[in-house]
Every structure is written in C-alpha cells, then in structure tokens.
Design goal:
The chain is of the alpha/beta class. It has eleven helices and 20 strands. Strands 1, 10, 11, 14, 15, 16, 17, 18, 19 and 20 form a ten-stranded mixed beta sheet that branches. Strand 18 and strand 19 form a beta hairpin. The longest helix has 17 residues. The protein is elongated, with a radius of gyration of 24 Å. The chain binds pyridoxal-5'-phosphate (PLP).
Length: about 375
C-alpha cells in the first residue's frame, strides 16, 4: 500500500496505558475489551493483541465473522459474540470456539444441534434486558430460558449479562435501578445459576462511575480507546489514572491561496470572505468521515494554531482560514484534524460536539475510513 496523505495514527502505548487504568479500577473482575467495530476504529486485531498481552481474559465482538478474524490472527482467549447469531453463522461460532450470547430461545435448538453434531459442550451467556430496552429477555422470562439451556444437550449456562443505558451519567438513578434488577434476577434464579456462572453488566460508565457494578467481568470499550463515556467535561482525574487519547487523524496542506475580500468559498457559497484571506486547502472530506456537518464550524491545527473550517466540507476537500498566521502556512504542512500539535489539542469529544454526536462515532468514522498506522508512543 502506498502512503496516503490522510493518516490515522494509533498509539500502542496509549492503548496499554488505558488498559492498565481500567485494570486498576476493575478489582478482581476479569476484563473483556470490546473490540467490535474494528476496535472502535483502532483495528480489532492489533488492539486485541495488545490487550491480550496485557492480560485481557476475553474479547467482545458483534458477529461471528469478527470472531473468526480474531481466531485466524491467533487470539486464543474467549471471544464473545454479543449481537448477531443467526442459523447461517452458527458454524462459525462452533468452528472458531466462540462464546455465543443468546437473547431469546429462537436460536437455542439449532445451537444445541450444532454442538451435539460436533460432540461439543458449548457455554452460553444469556443476555437479559434489565432496563436497556434493546435486546435480550425480560427478567421474568429469564428463568424459563435458563431451564431450556440446561435441558438442551450440548449447551450449558456459562454466564448472564445485561447492559446499562445510562451509566455514562454520574449518579444516574437508572443505573442503580438496572443494577438492582439484575442482582434481584440472579438471586431469584438461585440454584439454577451454576457456581461458576459469570455475571457481567459494567461498560466503561459502570466501571468509572458505578464501580460496585464490576461483578465477575467488565466490558470496557470507549475508555480503552481513551475517551470518557460522558464526554467532556469529564470527572477530573489526575496522573496515572487519566485516560490517554489513542487516535490522531492527520492530513497535509495541498495548496495555499490568497483571496480578496468578497470571495465565496465552495459548494453553496456558504462562506464569503470579509477581508483579504489566506485559505489553506486540505485533501480531506466526508468520504474520510470528516462529515459535512463540520462545515463552517469545525477547527483544525496547523503550525500549532487553530484554524477554522470555512465553507462546505465536500467529498474530498476542506478549506481552512489561516489568514494572518505569524508562521506562514505552506503546502505540505502537517494538519492535525484530531489530536495534538504543539500545545493545542482537538479531542474526539470536541469534534463530536461539532458533529452533534459522541466520540464513539467520531473514532469509528475516522479510524475505519482511513489508513491506520501504528506508532509506539
Ligand atoms: C459496546 C458495548 C460495551 C462497551 O461500552 P463502552 O461504553 O464503550 O464502554 C459494553 N457492553 C456491551 C453489551 C456493548 O455492546
């Protein structure tokens, strides 16, 4: 692959650091890094290798095909398939020794048949809807499903999980309610739950803001990738406990133009210069995940200073205003779209604010639409 102008840099040291921060908060709970969405844009295989070396006990993906990729890359710890089990991909689950998470009874019989035909005993985790209102069985139906798992040949109950809808909010009463409901359910199930059954519910928000919810295993995602689930401003943490951003997104100036006052810039002529202006042209656009929503509102870093986006972001081009910069901006200059340059930083949360979304989406867009390069620091 020839070098691209736009590059996403991923810091291995930051991934390790964030894993250690999570581990220091997890107590005795196992850690299952969520590496779905190609590691939130950071590269699933590379991240899983780093986390495995740091002691991660399992990995979480959405679909069996992702688990197959991890296995082919030599990842040997349990890989949980959290979302998409359908009859057509059960062979992948069995052949790659993935851990199925089941959300209702519809797939159980086929899973049992597939297990029996291969002479296997498959440990199933049950997904309970304890308040997320998305996927899973309601607590009242969990008992029946646990019974079904235990009676079907080739299957056994290895874990029970739920998910928090609001753990990113400090002190959200909802999180306490959902947790209480989950605890109550596991108590009610009593002896139906085997001794070594793994209970898990905490995402990054649970880990950071409701530490008592760690139970047997935590499932952090965004915090491993260096962002706090609540965005900015986040709870002030200092020193070794502070998460470090992992991703930078860089481009270069490809042209610098001097334009008179009254020049309309780009599609729709949404920006007209009010003074003689120096405009830097960047070869990045919505094709690269640098969304059109950033038009006339986002900023970039060039020569250590912030420069405002002017006019519409288009498919492959973006314009920024560098009028009056003490250090002249020149073609070839490095431009930081996400990350630090000199003393300035643009965070994924700041970009998320401009894009009216959350850091998760920014990281997935930039990381999965551009060439990634791994750097040590
Ligand atoms: C994505 C996901 C997580 C991780 O959430 P973060 O907020 O990124 O920590 C945990 N559990 C489940 C079920 C998920 O789908």
């Amino acid at each position: 692959m020839s070098a691209s102008i736009n590059r996403v840099e991923i810091s291995r040291a930051a991934l390790r650091h964030n894993f250690r921060v999570c581990r220091s908060k997890a107590g005795t709970a196992r850690i299952m890094p969520m590496v779905k969405a190609d590691g939130y844009g950071h590269g699933m295989v590379e991240c899983a290798r780093i986390f495995e070396a740091e002691g991660a006990q399992a990995f979480g993906v959405a679909e069996p095909s992702e688990g197959a990729v991890l296995r082919r890359a030599g990842i040997s710890r349990p890989v949980f398939v959290l979302v998409g089990l359908v009859p057509e991909n059960l062979a992948d689950v069995l052949d790659h020794d993935l851990t199925p998470v089941v959300a209702d009874s519809s797939i159980l019989e086929e899973l049992s048949r597939a297990a029996v035909s291969r002479g296997r005993e498959v440990g199933v985790h049950l997904k309970v809807d304890a308040g997320m209102g998305r996927q899973g069985v309601l607590p009242g139906q969990a008992g029946g499903l646990v019974g079904r798992i235990q009676e079907l040949p080739g299957l056994f109950l290895a874990g029970i999980m739920a998910h928090f809808p609001m753990a990113d909010e400090y002190d959200s009463p909802n999180t306490r309610q959902v947790f209480a409901r989950f605890q109550e359910l596991t108590r009610t199930l009593g002896d139906a739950v085997p001794q070594d059954c793994i209970l898990h519910i905490a995402n990054s928000g649970g880990l950071f803001h409701f530490n008592e919810t760690c139970l047997d295993m935590i499932r952090p995602g965004i915090s491993l990738y260096g962002c706090y689930p609540e965005g900015e401003p986040h709870q002030v943490e200092t020193g070794a406990e502070t998460l470090r951003p992992v991703m930078r997104f860089l481009t270069r100036v490809i042209q610098v133009r001097e334009l008179p006052a009254g020049s309309a810039l780009g599609y729709g002529r949404t920006f007209v210069t009010s003074r003689p202006s120096t405009i830097a042209v960047l070869p990045v656009g919505y094709e690269d995940g640098y969304l059109r929503r950033l038009s006339n509102r986002g900023e970039v870093l060039v020569r250590g200073r912030r420069a405002r986006i002017v006019g519409r972001v288009s498919m492959n081009l973006t314009l920024v205003d560098v009028t009056g910069f003490a250090e002249r901006v020149r073609p070839g200059d490095e431009v930081v779209l996400l990350g630090s340059q000199g003393r300035e930083t643009i965070s994924a949360d700041e970009i998320a604010g401009w894009m009216e979304t959350i850091s998760y989406e920014v990281l997935c867009l930039f990381g999965n639409l551009n060439n990634r390069y791994y750097v040590e620091e």
